[in-house]
Amino acid sequence: MSSKWKDFRLYVITGVNYHPGRSLMTVMEQTLQGGADIIQLRAKDMTKREVLAQAYALRKLTRHYDVPLIINDHIDIALAVDADGVHLGQDDLPLAEARRILGADRIIGISTHSIEQALRAERDGADYIGVGPVFPTGTKPGRQAVTTSYVQEAAQRIRIPFVAIGGITTSNVNEVLAAGAARICAVSAIVGSDDPAHECRSFLQAIHASDQSKPGQVDLKQIRVNGRAEQTSARHVTELVQQLGLEGKRIVVELNGQILARDAWGEAEIENGATLEMVHFVGGG
Amino acid sequence: MHNDDQWKDRYSRQTRFTPIGQAGQDRLREAAILIVGCGALGASLAQHMVRAGVGTVRLADRDYVEPSNLQRQMLFDEEDALAALPKAVAASNKLRRINSDVNIEPHVVDVTARNAAKLTKGIMLVLDGTDNVQTRLALSDCCFQSGIPLLYGGIAGSQGMSATLIPGETACLRCLIGGAEEGEAGETCETIGVISPIVDWIAALQAAEALKWLTGSRDALRRTWLSADLWPFQLFESNLPKPSVSCSYCSRSAVSMLTIRKMAKRKQRWDSTRGSDTVINGSAAEGSREESRGAERSREADLPSEVAHPTDDSKAAAHLGESIERDSPIRTAMLCGRDTVQVSMGRTIDLSMAEQYMAAHGLLVTSNPYLVRVQVQEGERLVLFPDGRILVQGTQDTSLAAALCDRYVQGIEEAAITANRLNRAGGQERS
């Protein structure tokens, strides 16, 4: 699939227990009308047949709105209904196994609760990660909140899309956005509200308002690192090396065809369109 | 030395190559190089240099031949591994059979900041065949302090890198990859394996630059950092930075006029063999034609051959991974990825005494004239070298290794004292 899905800003996860008396399809269609741009089916206490039925229905609905559908945990169901991807927790099937089954084109997202888990998921080839729970949440009772400091860390060091999740509501979303999140995920705050479409619009308003107040984001430079397109706010090579999590590594850095001595990293400005190679030193003989 | 007519064509294919010619060949014969590390890269480099007819090839290596080396280390065979010969010795044996005209100097020694200056004495070019960052940094420091070019090469997996580092012209290795403060060792053959083609590929790049430098084709030098991966074939080359302004090794002020003059002098000496008027760093090469290489050779004569002993240079720089035990001259160094600690006792070891002592304690001992290997009761294997180094295999615990060596070496020394006393007593009885 194309990488258009990466532009998502508001990620909504299903939670039928939050809207008794209203059908899953009604509520989810309202979120789509409100602007949710990626949907995850999460159904923990249901039989596989029930999940499969919901997945088919949601697939039809999300296709209609041209929004990606992600299935929580069940790789087989994702394949059966031709969902766009899966979302896995830390204790689910390892990423490499999931990738082998799903192939390169399907989206794989991973829940992470620390920067170490995030970096590992990124290294192992996750397409996006969940960062949370930012605040204590009823969806994941008993899990310690990671607070906005982890959001900040992720914003600095993670290059793949990350979505902040866990206890986020319209009244605390600004804190999360200020910490550097560009994508927000909510469950109860949206599907549990009387007007999910309105709730979605409120979230999106906050997200877009935050974009305006973050001039740095608009200024992200397009660069190439080892042949891959990247975006960065780094001013110089030292900052970029930090952002890429390569601090303390024995690497040789080339900027625009010229190797840099290490003491020149701090002065070597990164401009839009810069091409970098970062080569790990090879020490055998 | 061959003088027969039969050997007159020995270098004919090399001299027919115009950029080298007979003049280049004469320069090679006058050249003296040091190859540090005689494993995969080092053996391949040595083979190139010896076949090409470089006058003096000094080899330094701290290790001995093991079966796991044979897959890629071209100068060694099964007999060498069975005999556990030191790599420098096994390599020299082969190299002398390849070209008996070359003066080959094997040194079974760990090259450190302490002894690098001594080992590079009289040397025009250092070829890097080491397997670790620490030795490379020590070499880079020493080369930049003495104005000797260093041909870096490194390999691991199917990847390799190489660069020609020239004092006064390029930054030093420390400025490129970071000094001892960077924790990472870089990938090594022990951590990710290695395939033999990358060895020869990188060694060939280094050897080509060595030939250019030694025959005076400076304009032809590849002035880049080249890295390659032979498996998903990828090649990447970029320009090397100039000396760093603030570096205490490679900045232009650090590479003093003295060392630049030294380089010019050496260069002039080779040039004199073909009357060229090469200019180095803008200043005409100085020195007189009368000062022959022979004179310099004789000054090198104080360097011990076969087995060099590390000297206690007062300027011993901090050596990454090496800790100095208090109240004791014992030093230890982890050999990365090898489950081995190298312990330097700071005093020589009597190998025959060591062998007797270990055997008398019922331990399984194997030995050759260069080393003694013993399986100790504690489970580790000790490899003792006469220069006072002991490889403790089967541990990564430096203090445990130091304690183990201390115990056994003390035992050996006490046994030696007792044996001496008995000998003397025996002598008195007989008289």
Automatic annotation (TrEMBL), chain A:
Q: Which NCBIfam families match?
A: thiE, thiS
Recorded catalytic activity of this chain's protein: 4-methyl-5-(2-phosphooxyethyl)-thiazole + 4-amino-2-methyl-5-(diphosphooxymethyl)pyrimidine + H(+) = thiamine phosphate + diphosphate; 2-[(2R,5Z)-2-carboxy-4-methylthiazol-5(2H)-ylidene]ethyl phosphate + 4-amino-2-methyl-5-(diphosphooxymethyl)pyrimidine + 2 H(+) = thiamine phosphate + CO2 + diphosphate; 2-(2-carboxy-4-methylthiazol-5-yl)ethyl phosphate + 4-amino-2-methyl-5-(diphosphooxymethyl)pyrimidine + 2 H(+) = thiamine phosphate + CO2 + diphosphate
Q: Which family does the similarity line name?
A: Belongs to the thiamine-phosphate synthase family.
**Domain of life (superkingdom):** Bacteria
Residues noted as binding 2-[(2R,5Z)-2-carboxy-4-methylthiazol-5(2H)-ylidene]ethyl phosphate in the record, renumbered to the chain = T137, G138, T139, G167, V187, S188
Binding residues for 4-amino-2-methyl-5-(diphosphooxymethyl)pyrimidine, per the UniProt record? Q40, L41, R42, A43, K44, N72, S111, K140
What pathway annotation does it carry?
Cofactor biosynthesis; thiamine diphosphate biosynthesis; thiamine phosphate from 4-amino-2-methyl-5-diphosphomethylpyrimidine and 4-methyl-5-(2-phosphoethyl)-thiazole: step 1/1
Query: Can you quote the record's cofactor note?
Result: Binds 1 Mg(2+) ion per subunit.
Database matches in InterPro entries? Aldolase_TIM, Beta-grasp_dom_sf, Mopterin_synth/thiamin_S_b, Thi_S, ThiamineP_synth_sf, ThiamineP_synth_TenI, ThiS/MoaD-like, TMP_synthase
Name listed for the protein in its UniProt record: Thiamine-phosphate synthase
Which Pfam family is one of this chain's hits? ThiS
* Top enzyme category: transferase
**What region holds the Thiamine phosphate synthase/TenI domain?**
10-190
Positions contributing to Mg(2+) binding: D73, D92
The GO molecular function terms of this record are: thiamine-phosphate diphosphorylase activity
Q: What does this protein do?
A: Condenses 4-methyl-5-(beta-hydroxyethyl)thiazole monophosphate (THZ-P) and 2-methyl-4-amino-5-hydroxymethyl pyrimidine pyrophosphate (HMP-PP) to form thiamine monophosphate (TMP).
Q: Which cofactors is this protein said to need?
A: Mg(2+)
EC number(s) given by UniProt:
2.5.1.3
Show the Gene3D superfamilies listed in the entry: 3.10.20.30, Aldolase class I
